[in-house]
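Checklist before submission:
- one chain only
- standard amino acids only
- sequence pasted in full

Submission:
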Amino acid sequence: MAPLARQKFATQVDTEILSTVRALAQSEGRQIQALVDEALADLIEKRRQARPRAHVMAAYQASHEGFGALYEKLAK
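Returned file contents:
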């Protein structure tokens, strides 16, 4: 397996969060870098899942165009 390409970056984080992450990394025997990678990957996946898929939105739009008047009557 080829090694992953890595890039350094600098940021700032809340002192309490960093302290907790350091303690967590130590208790798990892992590097902070591994926890940051995991946290960022989780964030990306969570955001992807929160966004409606294009085909779902297309079906919704088509349904609304065809039955919008009915939806309004049903809502009343």
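Reviewer check: The helical segments are 15-28, 32-50, 54-75.
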